[in-house]
Design a protein that fits this description.
The chain has 159 residues and is mainly alpha-helical. The chain has one domain. Helices cover 72% and strands 0% of the residues. It contains six helices and no strands. It is elongated, with a radius of gyration of 19 Å.
Length: 159
């Protein structure tokens, strides 16, 4: 269950975005009384959906640029290129963690104007996403190192 927690969070966020925006439209056009908080909440949820979705994409190996570039290399270069691509992704994930923590700290005291929710909740999705990516990249790198070429083509969970 814990292994699929990011997917569950993404699904819940997508459902919540749909419900919040739908409720906002209903209240605005049928009750002529807009839900002032719906935009802020849907934006917050969308940020979480995007960043958790990016981590899930790394977990499942769905970032197509890695596959396309790697598949065009001669066979003897595919493993080193796969490892290089994973290293570049790890550096980027590390940047997300570092800058995400800095931005979260810088914005934690700020509140959204309507809901008064801390903006830190919006920014903390970034380092969490980067951390999840680093965790998922460890497994992908291990598989690539063992010679299982094109780790992006084969999801770790057998999908």
């Amino acid at each position: 269950m814990l292994a699929n927690l990011p997917e569950a969070i993404g699904g819940i966020a997508m459902l919540a975005i749909t419900l919040v925006l739908f409720a906002g439209v209903i209240w605005r056009y049928f009750f002529v009384d807009p839900l002032t908080w719906s935009d802020e909440i849907s934006r917050l949820l969308f940020v979480w959906l995007a960043f958790i979705g990016a981590a899930v994409g790394v977990k499942r190996g769905s970032h197509s640029a890695v596959v396309v570039f790697e598949a065009r290399m001669p066979r003897r270069w595919q493993r080193p290129m796969a490892l290089f691509a994973l290293a570049v992704m790890a550096v980027m994930a590390g940047v997300l963690v570092y800058t995400g923590i800095r931005e979260t700290i810088a914005n934690i005291a700020q509140a959204m104007p309507v809901t008064r929710i801390s903006r830190g909740w919006q920014y903390v999705a970034v380092p969490i996403s980067g951390g999840l990516m680093l965790i998922y990249l460890v497994a992908l790198t291990r598989r690539a190192w063992r010679g299982e070429l094109r780790p992006a083509l084969h999801a770790p969970d057998g999908e």
